[in-house]
Amino acid sequence: MPDDWQRALVVAAHPDDIEYGAAAAVATWTAAGKEVHYLLATRGEAGIAGLSPAEAGPLREEEERRSAAVVGVSEVEFLDHRDGVLEAGLGLRRDLAAAIRRHRPELVVTMWGGDTWTPPGVTPGYVNSADHRALTRSVLDAVADAANEWIFPDLTEPRWAGVQYIAVHSVDPEPPHVVDVTVGVEKAVASLTEHRRYLEALSDEPVEEQARRQIDMATLAEDGGRRVGFRLYWG
């Protein structure tokens, strides 16, 4: 995984998406002096059964801000698209391109957007969220949009052609690019634990145990350490 960058923008669909593995890489990067910002397409307001979107949205936003702070991220932006119905199209691309111009990253990190995802050692796997699929495709397109002044000429932010790499969080058991996150694992667990209300709604298992199990599953063990995988593309 290349290291010749200083500012990263991590883009996800919902609060908690980043915390299922990628936050371990974020903690490692910020500990090394890198600057990382978060961009969330939605506030995750449709994500807690029995809790109305009006209540869940602000709660999940606050959980995400606390979670980000644990791994050294102080800037978290929400685009306010509606949770559950993200569309891979011009509207989302435009908003993402504008955000990329605002944050001006050299590295853009986003989530796995394949039709299915399979955690290591788990079969047959799961159908990926429609929001995840839409988000990843739109991020890949928006990087180019941010660099082109003619695609969305109404945007007021100066164009940004400085993205060197796009890293897609990989669920492959043998990912093509890896980050050694051994030093970031404990912060990643603490970061996921901040999504307490959300995790309580998912399972009766204690939140801390859920977080530990999820991070152990998401960070691949290797030679006594831990790593997180990515698929890397030129920006």
From TrEMBL:
Coiled coil: none
Keywords: Zinc
UniProt entry tagged with the keyword Transcription: no
Molecular function per GO: hydrolase activity, acting on carbon-nitrogen (but not peptide) bonds, in linear amides
One GO term of the biological process aspect: glycoside metabolic process
PANTHER family assigned: LMBE FAMILY PROTEIN, N-ACETYLGLUCOSAMINYL-PHOSPHATIDYLINOSITOL DE-N-ACETYLASE-RELATED
Protein name in UniProt: N-acetylglucosaminyl deacetylase, LmbE family
